[in-house]
What does this fold into?
Amino acid sequence: MTMRDAEKDGDPIVAHVAGVSHAYGKTKALADISLDIPAGLITGFIGPDGVGKSTLLGLLSGARKLQSGSVHVLQGDMSDKSHRSSLLPHIAYMPQGLGKNLYMDLTVHENLEFFGRLFNQARAEREARIEDLTRSTGLFGFLDRPAGKLSGGMKQKLGLCCALIHDPDLLILDEPTTGVDPLSRRQFWSLIDRIRETRLGMSVLVATAYMDEAESFDWLVAMNDGAVLAQGNPVQIKASGHAESLEEAFVNLLPGNDGKSHEPLTVPPRPDSIDGKAIEAHGLVQKFGNFTAVDHVSFEIERGEIFGFLGSNGCGKTTTMKMLTGLLEPTEGEAWMFGEKIDGKRLESRERVGYMSQSFSLYTELTVAQNLVLHAQLFQMPPGDIPPRVEELTKRFGLENYLDDLPTKLPLGVRQRLSLAIAIVHRPEVLILDEPTSGVDPIARDEFWKLLIDLSRNQGVTIFISTHFMNEGARCDRISLMHAGKVLACAAPQELIKEIGASTLEEAFITYLEDATGEHEEQATQPQLALAVETADVADAQHAAAQTSFSLRRLKAYSIREAKELLRDPVRLAVALAGTMVLMLVFGFGITTDVENLTYAVLDNDQSVESRQYVESLAGSRYFSEEPALKDQTELQTRLRSGDIALAVELPPDFGKDLIKGSVPEVAVTIDGAMPYRAETISGYVDGLHQTYILEQYARVYGEQPDLLSVDIEPRYRYNQDFKSVYAMVPSVLALLLLFIPAILTAVSVVREKELGSITNLYVTPISRFEFLVGKQLPYIGIGLVNFTLMALMAVFVFDVPIKGSLPTLLLGAVIYIFTTTAFGLFFSTFTRTQVAAIAGTAIGTMLPAVQFSGLMQPVSSLEGVGAFIGATYPMSHFLLISVGTFTKGLGLMDLSANFLALAPAGPLLLAASVLLLPKQEP
Amino acid sequence: MRQLRNILRLGIKELYSLRRDVVLLILIGWAFSVGIYAAASGFSVDLRNAAIAIVDEDRSQLTIRIRDALLPPEFKEPVLISFPEIDPGMDTGTYSFVLVFPDGFEQDVLAGNQPEVQVNIDATATMQAGIGANYIANIISQEITRFSAELGETTSLPLELVTRFAFNPNLTSSWFSSVMELINNVTMLTVVLTGAAFIREREHGTLEHLMVMPVSPFEIMMAKVWANGLVIVVAVAFALWVVIETMLKVPIAGSIPLFLLGTTLYLFFASALGILLGTIARSMPQFGLLFILIVLPMNLLSGGETPLESQPILLQSFMRLVPSTQFVSFAQAILYRGAGFDIVWFEFLTVTLVGLALFALAAHRFRSSISTGK
It folds into this structure.
């Protein structure tokens, strides 16, 4: 069915999905989905984590590459590359996760500027839009604050601004409000509503795990296990699920759950027997630098109580919990557990606590059973008690079928149960659970709560839990509402609701938040959305501009961004600049092939005038330094063995007499052969000294030169008359370091975005791969040139190695070389998935060839086999010759033209390979 | 007792993690077998394949004999070039050596006129230049002696020099490079293994989880040290016995158990260094940079690549405090020279002391690096 056919049927559609399947390795994410999405509406995709919502949205936005089936968006086929690139300026996509497409080191203004440039907006237009958007979202006052320092709600607002900067026709939001406080959530949606009023016809697609949000959407697609369960407006969905609420309807719609109503969870009341406090906290403060994460938090938790911390991501819940476990020392304030002051160094008190962190903290390389046993052992349970305890827990937590599996293979819900089992394996009196249920579907969440209730009510365990789900908060005996490091209120959930006069906990929380921040919803709406003024013509013109095949502005967007990030990371910058200088200093002085200061000792068995003359001839050499004489053969052996001397000279008895008689005495020299290169060189020195001695003797006795040698061998040490290795090594080290450092720096640049998620901006904006890569490369080329300048200055002024040849030639070579080495790092960065792999790959790809095959130690011409091939093609071999050539050999461009010709193609080839290897869509 | 039990159990856990990490295992396997074999047989520090050219203006029997005596493996087949080709050939690094025989060379030799042979040496190829010049000089005089002997003229020296190389009579470079590669790999892998594992566990939150259990940083670190140390010691023993002694046929003069004892002490130092770097770096990229900054000089300047004596005194005395230098020194002493404990005890002591200092420093930073790691 084509797009036009669908429209003939009635309502216009924004996207048409037919027979789409998608798999990650063996895991199926989407199974043969077909779907029409109506235009101009808010369409919600609902369902628990891992059912394929994100995958589907990724395909619709063009961020993800289609595997099978067809997807048409805004009248275009998403598998057609040219169509897709012409569509990109019309689509905006906000990936899942707080601020995933933002750059945390950049300020609000810089982030928006970056996106404006990506859509090819000139400065005036960009600034006008930034002001409009930030004024209408309440971010205007925070333009200079780094995105990383914004609250979760503000990050999402900024993400939305970035998505809206180019006036999209289709806005795709993947779980935009997960982990955000309820007030920000409400503000977020009213913002969306207002934008839709001004931009009529804009379609919005949203994935969400909050069913209450979904109630207000125009159209819903309920998904489970990679398939569509039902679609329709909320009323229709509830009707087909035979339920009052969407959540229940959804549970009922699940296959195998036909009509059987999911039993709502009830919490039995807590017995009144109060036997004292489990945890007390007074005025806890935690500061990280000048940022206050927790601001004077106090509370008391009674024994056997379920106490909840309710608040958004980043409001200080985790930090407070860490202080209670002793992981963090409070900056101020005190906390007690069972009347004892909490001290992180006391091991005994840890046995009374069970802790489950946000990340579950399982040993992914141990099986489920091994994880349980290890933790039981570490808590010093008697060996006899461990097997029954493990068996008991496996049964109660339903882990029987998973005992031999690795945790990574388990569904999220099971992994969560395992974490809880581990946390209670030693029967702690207090459980501290940090967001244990985030990302888990409603049914699994209820199962988890049943276990908690059992622990609290039947075993008297005190539970301290944090969550951002309101319905979970309502289940606690008492809760603390947290915001921005402060406790807003602390009481039983019902009391909180009553006190405010609200109907739900969410409403109550919002009221408290509004009181605390002084930020009321009406105020946020005050500034009129100026976007409304804009006519369709302007938008179209802008979309057309965004489509040009090459744009310097887009390239600049990435260069500026990368440079700013680099400048704000002191460690990387320090290593790049100071590290290079230190290594230059250390290697320049340290890597020397001169063999000097050799220790030797003499065993003189003759002690005649002649023998002493011979010994003196050795002592005169600048290469040798004499150690105390040897007494006998045994001492000679021992001292060689201990490395005390590198060379032993033995003169036979009657040396002097035999020499005079002409009966040719033998001088025996023993050289430490442990280091062959050194031994070889020593042997050469000794040969030379020996010859000199003979000639001098001869001349003294006969008064003329002997005709021993029939030729006069005249060695000419070219380029380096003194034959000091520093003249060759310093220019070589320069080449070596200009390879390592720039390559390592660029090696993480792309893969870092992959790990952090901001790579999405490459997928869903009009930037081309070439612009992206070169844009990223430029700042590093700049750093490389600074490094080069510093090292060249050091070579001349610290090492006294003058540039004898042409300076412009050296400079030109350095520019080409740095371009090549930065491209080398980029190349590794494009196809690796993790920063570790990129660094390891680059290290392996540079270390061996650079040290052994590039002419640093051995000339390339003397290599053979694979080494010779690598040496001939590796960029460093050629720049090494350029560097040594211009510094020490005194050469110019013409003399080195062959090396330039060999060096030049490497950079463009590496860059081209990187462009080809870097996908423009997520695979 | 309780400490020992915890150390044992956590160490066993480390071994399990290692077993699951296929990539790392392959890397270790490669580094201690093929890696060493390749380094020993592929790259040599002595004269190999030196590129040599000859300007022969004499073209006599004698010059041809000298040319023929410049043989592989030390030299590549000499290339005959003309006088003007010398400069460009050497400028581009095509030839490392160029010999120039003047016209009438052979006649002058026979006449006892001592003609001049010019040996041009590319002195920027420092490792080859000195040794090569020596070789060439020896070959020329040998050939001339032989040539004149055939013509019935004998020359005799009043004094003989007998040179013997102790511990490695033929100066086989694979004896040297195999063991040095082994040492480099030990340093590199141990530091990466412990440091990267520390950071990974911190990022996964498992270290944090350990810190809320009755386990101390000392126990956690000791567990890592013994488990990773064990793996590397086994790999070293394998590399020594199978790869170096059996396959590369390097005779080992001293006691392998003594060397392994020293290696164990060194591993203690290297794992402590790895953990320390892990506590300093806040992310994997930072660790990568730190690693290069620290380990590269440790490997290149420890005396395993170039002679230690030639370094400036200040650097030399600093490097003598670095355990990798001590490791290279006692490895050479034990393996080549057959030294016993009485000779190497001081190196062992230095390595242990530096190891202890770093271990204490890492333990000190341990707790604070975990809680502020996020």
